[in-house]
Structures are given as structure tokens and as C-alpha cells.
Amino acid sequence: MRTRKTARKTRGGAKLRKRAASSRARKNAGSDPAFPFRPARGPLDGVTVVDLTRILSGPYCTLMLANLGARVIKVERPGAGDDARAIGPFTANGDSAYFASVNHGKESVALDLKDARDRGAFEALVDAADVLVENFRPGTMEKLGYGWRRAKKRWPRLVYVSVSGFGDTGPLRTRPAYDMVVQAMGGIMSITGEAGGRPTRVGTSIGDIAAGMFAATATISVLRQRQLTGEGARVDVSMLDAQVALLENAIARYVTSGQVPGPIGSRHPSITPFGAFDTARGQVVIAAGNDGLFRRLCEVLGTPELARDTRFATNGARCANEPALRVALERALASADAATWLARLEAAEVPCAPVQNVAEVLAHPQVLARNMALPIDAPEYAGVLVAGNPMKISTMRERKKAGSVPALADRKRPLRR
After folding, report:
1. Which domains does the chain show, CATH number per domain?
2. How confident is the model at residue 37, as a pLDDT?
3. Could you give the residue numbers annotated as active site?
4. Is the peptide bond between 273 and the residue preceding it cis, with omega within 30 degrees of 0?
């Protein structure tokens, strides 16, 4: 005898399977005008992503895909959902603004992948999907019966994306990781901060975000490959690998000099002057990336003799004598405040910038003109801003508001559209 709860679950699975059949019909429709490609929604319009990820690395990947027009359906744990829902800061209604920042524009369904009926509903979603993204520890999907080898047999066109701390190979593959862990192990903390200071975490979660960006790039690449071969593929992205890939200049310096790089504050290790400098009031960033810009900088500062000084005549000489050059530049900059110098430097087309805080960034005319500080299109998130889509594409409609944030455990929501 079926209970009401069982009947509801069965009907829910049936609806998802019906939706999957409809989506398959759409995919088989090809150029049928009843199923048009809508470039204004983005180049990934028509791509469906089943999103098993939580916290940040995986959700950032699927946010990028959603920003490009993909339909992203989060599959969350019944009751609790994505762990990020419990991480602050929170709105007046108690909703997580942190969760909203990387999950707006997505949909959500709550399914227990250890429950037979919910598994059927999940499989119906994947039947209709192009991409599956997960960021469990390696081995978890295999235990659930949805590892890559099994998935490939059942869904040969599926793009199967895994993001984890250390990847699916190597001695650390099963070790858990968070952003802080891979920032430490990946070397980026050792080169961040002031000289002689303690190892410093980058102010944003670069360990998670870089992995998410690489995963999104690989996902789109495999979707293109599938157009040519008709087959899906596995994408395996490690947060640690992503950190190593971002070391760029630090690796080059070590392998050529044999010296282990350390933190050097705001300045660049190979270009001078290229950093933040004190003025009479406030700091200004100056980036004189070549000899011509340096000469122009010296003229603006009223110190043309510095450009003729053999200690500073070339970039190599300036790097070797950076402390002395900084003293000379800050002596000149002390005659006016940051705003005054910025105006003078901008007029001379010397690359420069104020050192802005987050409030100043969100209010800056350039940021607003590019729709990079967007309100969420939902009354429960009134007053909450999220970062806009930095990928501007000529055929894609520019959004003035971010998509709504999915409520937890809404089984019906993914069935709409």
C-alpha cells in the first residue's frame, strides 16, 4: 500500500521523466523553428546543466555557465541544501547573501541520491542534460553509483565535470580541501603580503574561484568537441592544480634564478615602478610599465632628472634599485594628495588608479556603466547586490538585474519552461 508521501515522490519522478522526454525531443529537433536558438540569452542557450556542487568552486563554475545562457538545475540535499545556505552574511529575512552571490539565475530541486525514487528522478534530469558538474571528494560519485565509467555507458554524450581539492589522481586524491588549504599548498600565500610578514591569504577565495573558472572553460571546450565527435568526456579539475597554474611569474623567477620568491607587498617583481605609493594624503597606484611611461611619470612629478639617473634609466636598473626609487618618488608625491596626483597622471596618460574599498568599487561610474553591480530580481533580496557578468557578448542581452535565487526543495520549479 502506497503512502501519500510515496505517491508524491512517484508523481514527482514521473514528471521529471516526462520533462526529460520533452527535452530529448527538443535536442533531436535540430533546426526545427519550434525550438529556436536564442542568442540573446547567451551562447549556451539550450544547454542544460545538472549541478551537484556546493559551497564555492563548483557553484562558481555553474554560475559562469548560467551567465552564458545555460539552464542550471541545482540538486541539493533535502532539508539542508547546499552548505553555503548556512554561511553568512544573511539578509533581514535570514537568507544567505553568500549563497545568493554564486547561485542566482539557477533553479533547485531537493533529491536524496540514496533514495530509490529520488534516484529515478535524478536520472531523469541527467537523461535530459548536456552537462553534470560535481565537486564531491573523489570516490563519492562511485559510491553513489554515478561515477564516470558508469555515467559514460548510460549517457555517452554527457560532459561530466569534477572539481576537487587535488584531482582524481595522485597521492592526495582523497584528501579534503578548502580554499585556504590550496592557497597554502599552492604557494600563493608565500608570495602574498608585505616583505618579512607572515604568509597571507589572498583576500578573495582564489583557490575556489580559479578552479571554477578553469572547470567552466573546460566544460565549454568539451561541448564544442562533442559537436565534432558526438561524444561527451570527463573534465577533472583540481583546486591545487589551478593555484599552480596561477603562479606564472613566481615559477619563472625561481627556475631562472634558483631563488625562492617571497612576498614583496604591492609592487611587481619584474617591473618598476609598479605598485602603490604614499602621497600627502592617501595612496595612488602607479604602473609605469616601460621606459617611455617612466619618463612621462617623472615629468608629471617634476623630477625629470630621475629618468636620466643611471640607477633608473632602464627597467632592469629600476628593479635593482627599487628602494631608492620609491624614496625619490614618494618624496615628490608628498607635495599633494592622491586625488590631485590621479588627475595629473590621468591627464598625462600614465596608468594609475586609486586604491578603492568595496563600497567605492560598487559605486564607481565605470562599474555601474558595465552593469557589474546588479540587484537581485527578487523582493526577498531587496538591497542585495551581486557581481554582474563580466563576459560581454555582442549578441547577448545585457542584464540589468541578476536572476532570482532558487528556494530550497522546490521540486516543481525545474519542470517549468
Report:
1. 4-246+394-415 (3.40.50.10540), 274-355 (3.30.1540.10)
2. 72
3. 268
4. yes
